[in-house]
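QA checklist item 7 of 12: single-chain prediction sanity check.
[x] sequence parsed
[x] length recorded as 219
[x] structure emitted
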Amino acid sequence: MSLKLYFAPGACSFVPHVLLEMSGASFDPQMVKLHKGEQNSEDYKAINPRGQVPVLVSNGQVVTQIVAIVLHLDQLFPDAHFLPSEPVARAQALSTLVWMNNTVHPTFTHIFMPQKFSDLPEVQAALKPYNTQLFRGMLGELQALVKAAAAKGQTWLTGEHFSPLDAYSLTLTRWGTIAGIAPEEHPELWAFVQKVAAQPAVARVMERERLQLNMSPAA
């Protein structure tokens, strides 16, 4: 099996990066430096014309988009139980994963890169505080999921097995600190992502990506 992951430090590519590390399989991690525009190079555009991460090259075949990559890894490594096998539980897990990816993630993009959504400085300035409030509320929803899982006696968001939801929770919470949302605003969520970060495979990925969990100015 040949696996190559193109990732950018701190991006959502962290999720499949962690899953691959947890799988125990051999894979080739390839860093893409977004701040240097490497995603727009001819070589990278030949792999993914959209110039986005993550990209997984699985036995020579390119897979893009985080949900598709997660589904592929779940099929490649069934013993890892990245997603539940029971139909309703699986659908619920995918529902949360898609929400993280198509709602929470883009909300942060409006904060971090408002220039993607308007070329008017006054609009860009307005997008940041508005979407910060939206993102704060979404982190509250994520904390509610953490509390609900704990109330059921679950170790992780989908049950006893670590899942992409847990890895994405860390990424989104970390992004919250970049947006100026203090970890103390969501204490149960913050405690949970610290548990995620303490997992050996997660810690190895964080070291490879050189990530600091709390990016608040006071941290």
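[x] summary fact logged: The mean pLDDT is 97.
[ ] second reviewer sign-off
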